[in-house]
Amino acid sequence: MADPSLFTKHSGKSFLALLVYVDDILVAGTDSNQIKDLKQLLDRSFKIKDLGALNYFLGIEAFRSSKGINICQRKYALEILQENGFLEAKPSRTPSVPGQKLNNLEGTLIEQPEIFRRLVGKLLYLTNTRPDIAHAVQQLSQFVDKPRDSHLVATHRVLRYIKGSPGKGLFYPANPNFKLQGFSDSDWANCIKSRKSITGYCIYLGESLISWKTKKQATVSRSSSEAEYRALASTTCEIQWLKYLLADLNSEIHSPVALFCDNNSAMAIYELKCL
User: Which among 39, 194, 188, 42 is positioned nearest to 104, based on CA atoms?
Assistant: First the structure.
């Protein structure tokens, strides 16, 4: 199995999937009777509480319609704003200042670093449905050890951006096109201190965004081509894992996966490696 918390069952034309997170369970399938039998079995063994159709799971809100399903973390986002006193703040159009590069030298150390750490941790969880803040939060997460007032100001800008659209999330159409494609990019030598680059990618299943990441690369890249190639490699690994996961969900992808990159030299290296 691609995901150790996912359990599936194939029985003729019916399919059943069970996703477990500690004591929370999601059940999906093509046969309602099979789902009912499973819930009865679990109730006899563990005394479960059936909450009905999916509408709230681990802080993620789900809204179903005939057109598809929309997920967001509006309640969670509003709780973050209220806890930090930003419910009445003036909204910001962007989660960070364009071109801003944070470092660990400017500004003074804040007196209560645990406040910053807790806030960044909550923002990291919010990126589960908010890819638009992923890069800004990734930058802030690098300074949880010794946060400074400049980092706190940058975090407050993220909060003001969330204030403008706390209910923003992701929409997944009911009849998606099962075409998998990925987009890869990197920001060469982004980190001022270590000169490490940033990998960024997003992967779509049809029109649905199903995976994304912004992460500092493990080693220093000597050129933009090398940084782009490392980003391509990370994206390829994620695509391969998603193919395994979709196969477990009885939705195997047989067509070639398109992977897009805007660096010609990196694509040339990648093509040579694939030969």
Answer: 194
Containing H/E element for 60? strand 60-65
Q: Give a yes or no: residue 63 inside a domain.
A: no
> What are 241-273's pLDDT values in tens digits?
999 999 998 888 888 899 998 877 777 776 666
Domain count of the fold of the chain: 3
Domain span at 30: 1-52
224 within domain boundaries: yes
181/205 Cα distance (integer angstroms): 7
Structure confidence by residue, pLDDT tens digits, 219-248: 999 888 899 989 999 999 999 999 999 999
pTM: 0.88
Coil/strand/helix, residue 79: helix
Beta strands in 58-179 (DSSP E): 60-65, 68-72, 169-173
Please choose, from the candidates 166, 143, 145, the residue with its C-alpha nearest in 3D space to the C-alpha of residue 84. Answer: 166
Same domain, 159 and 181: no
